[in-house]
């Protein structure tokens, strides 16, 4: 099966294309989609697709710019562009980058079907040519490993075994290791080639294994297992030192150990699975069979997830607004655990954290001019979120970022707990203020915090909040607001409940209050 990555900023188009055809019957699969160029770059490196379907016009980096950069990375990548009639000039420009297929929106099912048939035929021909080339007798050790992983042809296994023995590749156990290089300049493969060459020399000298290239990874076939901790550390250290010397970073995964040549592709698949799931591992060395994936026993449904995440964001907002930085780390950890429980993908986790950051900053900015500086760096902050290679490192970055937001806010000497709570009530009376939420933010039990408030203010929290709301409502009624408008503005969603509270505090109904003021 050939893999396809669909890139379009419209969710409806992405979902529509995914379900429009029986992709499997045409020899394709669609493992993922992307909503913009940033996601497309990331998922291109993650999935190494054989075909990409790209919208010409997208917010931010255009499809044309994305195609130009992809073509510099992979001259053989098959690309279909999506274009509206008004974008035909863009479509013509794309032809300069080797694009021979473009479809007009809305996409015609028959036209797309025929287009995929033609592309599949070209990919089949290229694959056959590669297999024939790999069959040459003068195979190198690297080419032997590549052929074993790429062909996966059991009928040719006896020949492969003989060639492996002749090349000196024999052992009781085998294991595949994959290395993903994190290039700073995505258009420059020079460092990748140099790293692979140095690793090949070092591994041959130490007789650790055979270094090879496959898809977008550098791989190593180990002819014995690195069960001993010192051996494992030596191998990982050698890889990282070589990579670091070229100013790069990397991720390393190991597949399951196997005992026969026929099973080596299985080791490769398990290494590849761990590489694709690396974001959810708590391992800074080499992710292997003994590494533990982050998970929760209790799964979370979509509705429950949204409700709980909303609660987390609400508490984060109050914590930052009141300067309670101590709870930010716990709340960010809680958000991550909820998303793991809901089986979020890596990209879904990152996108949700982007939404959390932008929501909090947009809600704080109208009240605190000090946060305007972070608005100017929003693109940079979003880029940082997408660059993180593990959930734990992303959570640490989120905590650091939100603590920075909170630190720049000037709170006018709100060091005393009661002053901070009273100030919050007078500024946020129209919102869903609850004592339980503030108790969590201030790290007190709600019962204890309620007693503190009543002892200091002479009123319970809810009574004080209601009094502030009624006073604000009176001001609005004096300005000519209707009763239901005033109720809604000060935080009462139920007008009848507002009338009861108003009469309790003022002794008269809102209607009588308005008439009395008009008469006066």
What would you note in describing this structure?
The protein is an alpha/beta fold and about 525 residues long. The protein has four domains: about 1-130, Response regulator (Rossmann fold), CATH 3.40.50; about 135-280, Reverse transcriptase/Diguanylate cyclase domain (Alpha-Beta Plaits, 2-Layer Sandwich), CATH 3.30.70.270; about 300-410; about 415-520, Arc Repressor Mutant, subunit A. Helix content is about 60%, strand content about 10%. The protein contains 23 helices and nine strands. It has helices at about 10-20, 35-45, 65-75, 90-95, 110-135, 140-150, 155-165, 190-205, 230-245, 265-275, 300-320, 330-340, 345-365, 370-375, 380-385, 390-410, 415-430, 435-440, 445-455, 460-480, 485-490, 495-505, 510-520, and strands spanning about 1-5, 30-35, 50-55, 80-85, 100-105, 175-180, 210-215, 215-220, 250-255. A five-stranded parallel beta sheet has the order 2-1-3-4-5, with helices on both faces. A four-stranded antiparallel beta sheet has the order 7-8-6-9, sandwiched between helices. A hairpin with a 2-residue loop joins strand 7 (about 210-215) and strand 8 (about 215-220). Helix 12 packs antiparallel against helix 16 (about 390-410) and helix 13 (about 345-365) packs antiparallel against helix 15. The protein starts with a strand and ends with a helix. The model is unreliable at about 135-140 (pLDDT under 50).
């Amino acid at each position: 099966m050939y893999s396809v990555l669909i890139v379009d900023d419209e969710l409806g188009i992405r979902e529509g294309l995914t379900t429009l055809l029986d992709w499997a019957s045409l020899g394709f699969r669609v493992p993922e989609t992307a909503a913009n160029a940033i996601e497309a770059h990331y998922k291109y490196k993650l999935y190494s697709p054989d075909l990409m379907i790209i919208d010409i016009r997208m917010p931010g980096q255009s499809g044309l710019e994305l195609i130009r950069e992809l073509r510099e990375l992979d001259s053989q990548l098959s690309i279909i562009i999506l274009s509206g009639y008004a974008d035909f000039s863009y479509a013509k420009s794309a032809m300069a980058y080797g694009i021979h297929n473009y479809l007009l929106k809305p996409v015609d099912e028959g036209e797309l079907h025929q287009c995929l048939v033609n592309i599949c035929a070209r990919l089949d021909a290229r694959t056959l040519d590669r297999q024939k080339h790999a069959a040459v007798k003068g195979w190198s050790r690297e080419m032997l490993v590549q052929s074993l992983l790429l062909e996966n042809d059991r009928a040719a296994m006896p020949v492969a075994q003989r060639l492996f023995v002749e090349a000196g590749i024999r052992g009781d156990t085998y294991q595949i290791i994959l290395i993903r290089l994190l290039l700073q300049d995505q258009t420059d493969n020079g460092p990748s080639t140099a790293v692979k060459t140095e690793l090949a020399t070092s591994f041959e000298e130490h007789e650790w294994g055979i270094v090879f290239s496959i898809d977008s990874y550098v791989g190593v076939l180990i002819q014995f297992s690195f069960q001993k901790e010192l051996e494992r550390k030596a191998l990982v250290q050698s890889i990282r030192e070589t990579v670091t010397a070229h100013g790069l970073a990397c991720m390393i995964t190991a597949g399951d150990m196997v005992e026969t040549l026929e099973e080596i592709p299985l080791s490769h698949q398990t290494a590849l699975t761990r590489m694709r799931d690396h974001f959810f591992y708590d391992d800074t060395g080499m992710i292997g069979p003994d590494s533990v994936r982050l998970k929760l026993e209790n799964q979370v449904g979509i509705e429950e997830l949204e409700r709980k995440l909303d609660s987390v964001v609400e508490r984060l907002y109050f914590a930052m607004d009141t300067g309670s930085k101590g709870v930010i780390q716990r709340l960010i950890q809680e958000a991550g655990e909820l998303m793991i429980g809901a089986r979020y993908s890596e990209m879904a986790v990152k996108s949700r954290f982007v939404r959390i950051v932008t929501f909090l900053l947009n809600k704080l900015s109208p009240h605190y001019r000090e946060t305007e500086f972070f608005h100017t760096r929003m693109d940079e902050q979003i880029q940082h979120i997408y660059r993180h290679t593990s959930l734990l490192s992303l959570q640490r970055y989120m905590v650091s970022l939100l603590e920075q937001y909170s630190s720049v806010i000037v709170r006018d000497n709100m060091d005393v707990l009661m002053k901070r709570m009273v100030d919050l009530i007078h500024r946020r009376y129209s919102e869903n203020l609850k004592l339980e939420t503030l108790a969590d933010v201030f790290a007190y039990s709600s019962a204890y915090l309620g007693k503190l408030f009543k002892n200091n203010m002479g009123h319970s929290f809810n009574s004080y909040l209601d009094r502030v709301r009624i006073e604000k409502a009176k001001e609005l009624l004096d300005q000519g607001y209707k009763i239901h408008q005033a109720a809604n503005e000060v935080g009462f969603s139920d007008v009848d409940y507002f009338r009861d509270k108003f009469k309790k505090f003022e002794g008269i109904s809102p209607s009588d209050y308005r008439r009395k003021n008009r008469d006066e």
